[in-house]
Amino acid sequence: MQQKLERSTVIIYSSARQNGNTKSHVMGFAEQNDVRVICLDDYKIAPYCYNKTYKNDDFYTVFEALLKYQHWVFASPVYWYNTTVQLKAFIDRITDYMDDESLKPKLRALRDKDFSLLSNGSSPEAPEVFIQMFKQTFGYLGMQFLNHHHKNTQKAA
């Protein structure tokens, strides 16, 4: 994903280490493009709850701020073939927009958006199951997958 982007873009990332490999990957991408960067670890996003009783939760504010961008880039390290807990909680909470008729129009806005993926881990490539989780989830929501870039963080011996 080294090409210059032509659409409004936001990077949504999470990592257990605030200044680790994921942030480095994100900032390298952001330097080449005019993008907004949102670290989900800076917000309180409660796990999905059927009764939707979330106290002092930032999910709705974050999600609705993202709706103004045409291209969403998700960035995460690969943890046991999956993403971080915070990014997974964010993804799970999108269900709130499926369950509430008044919120569904905002969810339908995703049908006009694209997404890409930045990943990093100690393998030469991201596991296919990691990539497919994003493709299947956001494809289901109507978003078009554009690109994926994985950075191997394993130091050569």
Radius of gyration: 15 Å
Strand content: 15-25%
Distance between the termini: 27 Å
Specify the helix fraction band.
25-40%
Largest sheet: 5 strands, parallel
The residue ranges in which pLDDT falls below 50 over 5 or more consecutive positions are none
Shape, principal axes of CA atoms: globular
Number of distinct helices: 6
Query: What pattern of helices and strands is seen along the backbone?
Result: EHEHEHHHEHE
Q: Provide the spatial order of strands within the biggest beta sheet.
A: 2-1-3-4-5
Q: How many β-strand runs?
A: 5
What is the residue-averaged pLDDT? 93
Estimated structural class: alpha/beta
Write a structural description.
The chain has helices spanning 21-32, 59-66, 85-93, 95-99, 104-108, 128-140; strands spanning 9-13, 35-39, 71-77, 114-121, 144-152. It is of the alpha/beta class. A five-stranded parallel sheet has the order 2-1-3-4-5, sandwiched between helices.
List key phrases describing it.
33% helix, 157 residues, 6 helices, five-stranded parallel sheet, alpha/beta
Helices, strands, pairings?
Layout: E1 9-13, H1 21-32, E2 35-39, H2 59-66, E3 71-77, H3 85-93, H4 95-99, H5 104-108, E4 114-121, H6 128-140, E5 144-152
Parallel strand pairs: 1-2, 1-3, 3-4, 4-5
Summarize, please.
The protein is an alpha/beta fold. It has six helices and five strands. A five-stranded parallel sheet has the order 2-1-3-4-5, with helices on both faces.
